[in-house]
Each structure stands twice: as C-alpha cells, then as structure tokens.
C-alpha cells in the first residue's frame, strides 16, 4: 500500500480528496486502532501466530470486544486499512487493500477453524458469538 500511495502521489493519479473526507477517515483509523488495541488488552493470548498456548493456560476470551465479534483485532485492522487510503489521498491504494482484505478474511477463517478444532470451549463461544469480523455481516 505505501508503494502504491507513493506512486499515486508522484504521478497524480488521484485528485486531492476533501478535508471532511480526510477527517472522517482519520476518525475511522483511530477507531480501528482503538478496537485492535482493546482486543489486545482484553485477550492476554492475543498473538500474531495462531496457536493454542497450552503452556499459558489458554482459554476462550469472550469479554470486551470479543462479546461482539470473534476476531476484533482483525476487524480493527480492516477499518484502519480501508480508511488509510482515503486519508493519504489515494484511491489507487484500494488495489492492495482489497488484496489484503481477502487475505485477512482467509486467515480469519483458517484461524477460526483451528480454534474450533483445538481450543476447549471455542465451539460453544462461536455458537454464541456468530460473527467473525463484522457484526451482522460475517
């Protein structure tokens, strides 16, 4: 995304976006970071690697943002990625963002499958909290 934003700026592919749109995108970026940070603070098992941390007494966390979606860290990241392109005046940056979103959805599905298969209580949690990333969507 930074490469596409830089090329967009250099060659002027996207006209300057309005200030209200940029301010709105900044608010969304901050919200995305807040959601991801809240997920990180709420879940001491939060990790960049999907693994069951039996050595640390890994259990299902269903409080805080995990009461609404099963993967709030990724949900916050998606918000941040989507809004960053607008904030940086680059509509072309949505090309890598769409690829990143697809990869994140795939990773979320794989991680969810692993947790359901290997983490005690996760299937029950998944039946209570239906949505993985976006409430009402998926």
Spatial separation of the terminal alpha carbons = 25 Å
Count of DSSP E strands? 0
Highest CATH level, the class: Mainly Alpha
Instruction: Show unreliable segments.
Output: none
Describe the structure.
This protein is mainly α and 138 residues long. It has one domain (2-48, 56-128): Four Helix Bundle (Hemerythrin (Met), subunit A). The protein is built from 5 helices and no strands. It has helices at residues 2-11, 19-42, 72-87, 94-118, 122-128. Helix 2 packs antiparallel against helix 3 (72-87) and helix 3 (72-87) packs antiparallel against helix 4. The radius of gyration is 17 Å and the shape is elongated. The two termini are 25 Å apart.
Question: How would the blueprint of this fold be written?
Answer:
Blueprint: H1 2-11, H2 19-42, H3 72-87, H4 94-118, H5 122-128
Overview in brief:
Helix content is 59%, strand content 0%.
Features:
138 residues; mainly alpha; Four Helix Bundle (Hemerythrin (Met), subunit A); 5 helices
